[in-house]
Amino acid sequence: MPTYRYQAVTRQGETRTGAMTGATIDEVVANLQKTGLIPISVELPSSTPPVRSLAKVRLGGDRVRRRDITAFTKQLATLVGAGLPIDRALGIVRQTASTAAVATLIEALQAAVRGGESLSTALKAQPQHFSEFYINFVRAAEVSGSFAVSLDELASYLEKAQALRERLLSAMIYPLLLVFVTLLALTIIMVFVLPEFAQLFEDMDAPLPAPTAFVMGVSNAVRHYGLYVLAGIAVLVLYVRGKADDHVWRKNWDRRFLALGLVGDLIRKIEMARLSRSLGTLLKGGVPLLAAIKIARNGLSNRVLIEHIEQVTGRLQEGSSLAGPLQDSGVFPDFAVQMIQIGEETGELDAMLVRVADSYDDDVATTAQRLLAVLEPAMIITLGVVIGGIIMSILVAIMGVNELPG
After folding, report:
1. How many Å apart are CA 71 and CA 82, to the nearest integer?
2. Please, which contacts does 74-78 make with residues 24 or more away whose CB atoms are closer than 8 Å?
3. Is the pTM of this model over 0.85?
4. Three-state SS at 333
5. CB atoms within 10 A of CB 374
6. pLDDT reading at 153 higher than 90
7. Residues 36-57: what's their mean pLDDT?
8. Which of 147, 146, 119, 148 minimizes the C-alpha distance to 135?
């Protein structure tokens, strides 16, 4: 059985670290709890700690990241659920913080709580680290009286949202790497390899076949105008970033993306997963539906869908149900709308929204894998065809020169 490293605290607040064997993390957690300890973290030891620490330094690791906020929330939920007061729980989490930046943040929260403020008020003073969603959820948890349970649900939400982001990022890494290698290979061929053949063809003083002349012309253009092309791309990127705050411009582009078949379908599923999980978690935490949907709307990125959610919010204020306006909009997935309607009819809208989010999380991963299954071989074949075409054009020219009468 594997050996796990753990951090735990006693009922008196003393920190303990050590190692314990177990078949799974849950088994280790259960064994620690049987001994009277409150587990803070349980994980397999890293086999390459120097590389991890070096990467953390190079990437500006001494800052508060999303995963740090997730870990903080989970640890705080565990300690408060074990019966520790919020002040002592914050102190313990601060002692086990992974970076100085996280420790400083928790210290500020603890000082505010000791000064008589609620945790939600202390969080509001740190808007760069805690979203409106997070703050409102904690505020609702404080009012509901089920603070520990609500914190645990919040930690679960953050973990699943982080998992979705990481799955999408992982799916994009290989295609981006393949594009980079393709462009690098073509640049090397155009800038360094083909000019050597150009000199050879000039010395032969023979007419070049059309494919060879085209390839050599492209090579010359890349060598002489490549920097201008890069400058143009940089200007285009800056222009797009500058227009990103233009609501009309962004909305038009978002509408075009939604119309792109599989890509548009994938965007709808990603946005629906975010909306459903945020809304369901807020409702579970005791936030009213109207306030919850206004907060959950901020988690969306597509302006077209945001505008439709604003229209849904207006209908809700008039006394409408949630499923009806979503159905009328025509932009949200039918399956999600039907599940929401069932949730409203059975009185379990919060649980149904979370199920919708779980379903679309899996669906997004499957769709992304299908797109990659088509995209990756297409990119490899394209690269092979382009490089093969370049090589063939050079060989045709050389063979034509060799066949000329001496």
Report:
1. 17
2. 74/152, 74/155, 74/158, 74/159, 75/40, 75/41, 76/151, 77/148, 77/151, 77/152, 77/154, 77/155, 78/38, 78/39, 78/40, 78/152
3. no
4. coil
5. 10
6. no
7. 57
8. 119
Overall average pLDDT of the 279-306 stretch: 86
Q: Are 77 and 40 in contact (CB under 8 A)?
A: no
Residue burial 78-91, b: 16+ Cβ < 10 Å; e: rest: bbbeeebebeebbb
3-state SS class at 261: helix
Q: Residue 49 above 50 pLDDT?
A: no
Element (DSSP H or E) covering residue 189: none
Task: Enter the tokens of residue 246.
Answer: 């233009």
CB 282 within 8 A of CB 289: no
The amino acid occupying position 197 is F
Cα-based distances in Å from 374 to 168, 263, 380: 16, 13, 11
Tokens (6 digits) for 210: 């059309």
Cβ atoms of 218 and 187 closer than 8 Å: no
Give just the sign of the alpha carbon dihedral 64, 69, 71, 75. Answer: positive
- As given in the structure block, the two tokens for residue 121 are 């008020």
What single DSSP character describes residue 15?
Answer: E
User: How many whole angstroms separate alpha carbon 278 and alpha carbon 127?
Assistant: 18
CA gap 400, 389 in Å, rounded:
16
Q: Into which CATH architecture does domain 174-406 fall?
A: Up-down Bundle (1.20)
Does pLDDT of 222 surpass 60? yes
H-assigned helices in 285-348: 289-297, 303-317, 323-329, 334-346
- Report strand pairing: 15-21 vs 38-43: unpaired
Compare 337 and 30 and report the one with higher pLDDT.
337
Contact between 89 and 14 under an 8 Å Cβ cutoff? The reply is no
The pLDDT mean for the chain works out to 82
* Residue scoring higher pLDDT (39 or 270): 270
Query: Would you say residue 405 has pLDDT above 80?
Result: no
Q: Please tell me the distance from the alpha carbon of residue 94 to that of residue 206, in angstroms, as a whole number.
A: 77
**Helix, strand and coil in the chain, % to nearest 5:** 75, 5, 20
